[in-house]
Amino acid sequence: MFVIIKIRQDVVVIKEWCGVMCSDPQSTLIDLFHNHMQGKYDKKPGQDVHEIDQVTAFVGPSKTDLTEMSSNVKVCDAVSCVGSFIEFVCRKLDDGELSNPVSETTEVRKNAFTILTSAANQAKHLPTKKSEINNKSRMYNDIIEWLKQMDVGFTSVNRDTLGVGLVNSITDALWYIDGNHDTLAERACPVPAPLEHFKNYYCPEKRKRKKIDCSVLAEETLRNHSTTIMMLCEKSFFQREQWTAVKQVICNLGESLLKYANYLSSKKSQDLKKKPKQATDREHYEVLSQSHHIQPGPASRYKMLHSAVIASKPYESILVNDFSPGDARRRHEFMKQIVVPVKCIKFTYSGSEEHLVFIWKVDNSDSESQVLSKNMEISSNLRKDLPVYHTRAMRREFLSMFGKQIHGKTGFLREAYRRLTGDISASINYTTSEMDKRISTILEMEDSDLICDLRVNNTGQPEKYEKFLEECQNYIGSKLETAVDDRRHDAVTKDFDVVTHLANAFSVRDFYEQVVSKCPENTPIPSKEWLRLQFWPRNCHY
Known about the structure:
By secondary structure, this protein is of the alpha+beta class.
């Protein structure tokens, strides 16, 4: 165990501060004193220990902050509890002091447990207050006053670490929700009563800005504050009895923030179901800051990507999709929560069927304008190889405009549009897809004799019921000159009699039977359903 020792006799320094390695941490402080005086650690023996009547040990975290401790305490207990700086003060006792050894006896009875308890009870140090340059600094100081009223504190060693961290976390959380205490209370997420008076610090309306409302509360930020507060509650100093009341208040604050964050999450999911998907930008840039400490866990899934980024040259683009999971949900989380070991630029292209994400490493020596210029150059080069998808309306407009003028086949017009614009959208249906493939083959082989639509070779099926249809046509021409539905006004004779045209065929069945009776023998006769189908319109919408 490494310790720093100094020995003096009253004001005379016997051995200056010296760092030594104690080979036996289980030895007592008095044993450490004798070994150092004999030169066991620094090979420089001091004066004769027989001339010294009393040795007092002082232990602390620094040279100026030392606490008196019994010389019978073990070195390991003293160092772990108080600090690694040890100063021994020697003096010779007078005859009167030798005859009254009460104080020495009382000192000997102290043990390590007594020292640890005493040190815990002396943990009343709080962080130093800030100069109140703004309202947030004033809130910081008020929280320190509140902790002082709650009769809690830290050791002098932890005051500027754990103490400052606790006060900063509480200040950040209360500053973020300032002005929304009523909003949280309406959702059964109230701010704990001991902290309710920490409000009206953040007032942007006093600086001619928009008044704060519930819209500023973000789910992710609330979760971050809640996680930070709940992690603080797991610290060892919160397990002391004097911190019980403060711990309960802080835990309640963290739970309220988490509860309201869950409410915002559920509300957001409901809004997404109601609102249609909005159009987003086709291209998006984002600066990814360097993550100095990447902890094991979810961040380990970026291991292969990190290796590729580190091995790449500055401004060399890397397609992140090659490193992402296959599952859609996990791929979305992978892209959203990406972390990198060096500063990078993230470029997202959403103009294709699948969002493409590229990242490239940035040279830290370049200025901001240089980085922006190189980003535009890289994205311009990437855009040449990116797929392009056009809407059906855009293709329809092209076909309508040029097809009417040149009277060309739509298949060739589609292929011309695709080659001129670089569109790689899928065909409307399977038939169109097969035709487009055939036309593409014709153009690539430059052979105009190839047939793009094989249906032109169809001569048609011979008409089987030609004689029957001819009789139908004759019957309609001779008997059904005027249909009942075509009558606009009834004819009136001189005697004022109304003349109404009466149809000879009242139905398809009646028409069918009359035509069959006029057909010669052995004439192929179709079914009634087939005849009814002939009168159906080709377009059902007319």
